[in-house]
Design goal:
single chain; alpha+beta; DNA primase, PRIM domain; 2 domains; five-stranded mixed beta sheet; four-stranded antiparallel beta sheet; 7 helices
Length: 297
């Protein structure tokens, strides 16, 4: 398969990956190629953990950190040293061919770090992850997200929402990559507590799942080696949902299943021109002088 001038070996294109939707592995690969211009703003230069579903959403999956050998000579990698003494070479996707190569491994979703090469110890965004457990209605997730927006506005921080693509919602706050993960996590903890203070009846920072009194406002993902599904990532759920960047005025009415592999191309085509400044903020990790439009592409 020729992708942006690079030859990518692809296999089993007719294998059904999403039986409910009738979508194949070939459909997944083509999706990532088609939306490469949008998704690369979010994944470029980030170490990527591979979560491989060789038989689609109804089959077994496994995680892989180390880049497979052999791999294309043009694929970028980054060598990561862990405090434990372990080390691994992670793939770093920088172009459409890299997206096709990753998808051909059976990686339905794009799991990327919060930092970029070469500053892998310093994230370029802070993440608040709204994670509902069983019994927490989606309406509460939306309400908490809007409370998060009020907190960020009071702090003068630009922030951008996106659906997780499963049952949650992410709020991303671009930051200059100067602080290491432990300090960023503490800042996120303070922000999470401020959000909960606005809606204490439906939100919590309690780590223990049993008896958790509301939607979990998770700040703990701000850590070395943690990953989230990137913007525009497809998720391994039966209806092939996508993690979709949103405008804040869309949050009060958005539903978890609004965006899928089938609909996302049209979504990008419809909203793309509005997001040039904001996607630059997320790409460069800097605070804009004026508030940008949301990072829809």
């Amino acid at each position: 398969m020729l992708v942006a001038g690079r030859e990518v070996k692809v296999t089993n294109l007719d294998k059904v990956f999403f039986p409910k939707m009738g979508l194949t592995k070939g459909d997944l690969i083509q999706y990532y190629v088609d939306v490469a211009d949008a998704v690369l703003h979010h994944v470029s230069r980030r170490p990527m953990q591979m979560k491989r579903h060789p038989n689609g959403v109804e089959g077994d999956f496994f995680y892989q950190k180390r880049v497979p050998m052999p791999h294309p000579e043009w694929l970028e990698t980054v060598h990561i040293n862990y405090p434990s003494g372990n080390e691994a070479d992670f793939p770093v996707v920088t172009d459409p061919a890299g997206l096709a190569w990753i998808a051909n491994l059976g990686c339905i979703e794009l799991h990327t770090w919060h930092s970029r090469v070469p500053e892998v110890n310093k994230p370029d965004y802070l993440l608040i992850d709204l994670d509902p457990s069983e019994g927490n209605p989606w309406a509460h997730v939306r309400e908490i997200a809007m409370a998060g927006k009020r907190v960020m506005d009071d702090l003068g921080l630009p922030c951008y929402p996106k659906t997780s693509g499963v049952t949650g919602l992410h709020i991303l706050i671009p930051i200059v990559p100067e602080l290491e993960f432990p300090l960023v996590r503490e800042i996120a903890r303070a922000i999470a507590k401020a959000i909960v203070a606005l809606v204490p009846e439906i939100a919590t920072t309690q780590w223990k799942v049993a008896g958790r009194p509301g939607v979990f406002v998770d700040y703990g993902q701000n850590a070395f080696d943690r990953t989230i599904a990137s913007a525009y990532s497809i998720r391994p759920v039966p209806d092939a949902r996508a993690s979709a960047p949103l405008r804040w005025d869309e949050v009060p009415a958005v539903e978890p299943g609004d965006f899928t592999m089938v609909t996302m191309r049209d979504r990008i085509a419809a909203v793309g021109p509005a997001a040039r400044l904001a996607r630059g903020v997320l790409r460069q990790g800097r605070r804009p002088a004026a508030r940008p439009e949301p990072p829809l592409t």
